[in-house]
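[09:14] KT: can someone run the structure on this one? pasting the chain below
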Amino acid sequence: METVTLTLKTTPTLMLEAEAISPDGLAGKTPDQIRALPVYMGRETYTLGEYFDVSGSPGSTAAETKVVVKGDLSRVKYLGSKMSAGEMVIEGNADMYVGAWMSGGRLTVKGSVDDFAGTGMKGGELLIEGNAGNYLGSAYRGDWRGMQGGLIRVKGNAGSDTGYFMNGGTIIVEGNVDVHVGTHAEGGTIVIKGNAKSRLGGQMVEGTIILLGTVDVMMPGFKYVGDEEVDVDGQKFLMSAYIGDLGERHRKRKGATIYGRLLIRKPAPADIAASREARLARAREAKKARFIAPEETASA
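[09:31] RB: done, structure tokens below
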């Protein structure tokens, strides 16, 4: 596999859209051809070479190409967008739409990413070593087709609306998630190893959400159906199983109604007591805050 390295030399004043930076976009091109590729900032068109130094050479096909991108890319969008093969490494943070609509290959981000990472993803593997923003593995604005295949793994936390309109594939978040997980999901699996807030599986039609931590507020549309042992990322856990969202439409398959599945890890007695104490402490602090006089707040 041949390697081409792009190093950011000029920080964009606004947000730079660089859809060309992927194994597919660079494969088979000479360094000079790569430097001449278009990138966009607002309504203006620039060349990739105006913002990046280019070293090495790509392979003749995407599958034979590894792309390494260096620098502070927190203002660069669409990195790895639509990649179908090969390998790509982003050595830092990146802006929105990382790995959007990718269908193959392996994309690693050694930092955090902004919103819509892996949106519309159909295949491949996206590894984010930091945190992910909102709408991870979701549908594009106005679309109903979210992630359809592949694997997204986030080592840190994820924002709101993870797996929005998800249709397939797997999302694994090793930290915590914000509200609205798996909203409108019609397939796929979401694994949350940390905690969730509320609206978990709202309007879910099909698919599976697995939660190893706690959820602040359960959706009323989920019904407990029993306990089961589940293999989660190579480990077995005893889970409480729910079906839902019962308030949503549901298809039938071979005469049986298909529901979304929500699996929540059953805590040990000591964990239950600790969780209860933590909730009571938060409630006491919230109640205390409501009765603080305005002048006390101002003086503090």
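[09:33] KT: thanks! Residues 70-299 form one domain.
[09:34] RB: yep, looked fine to me
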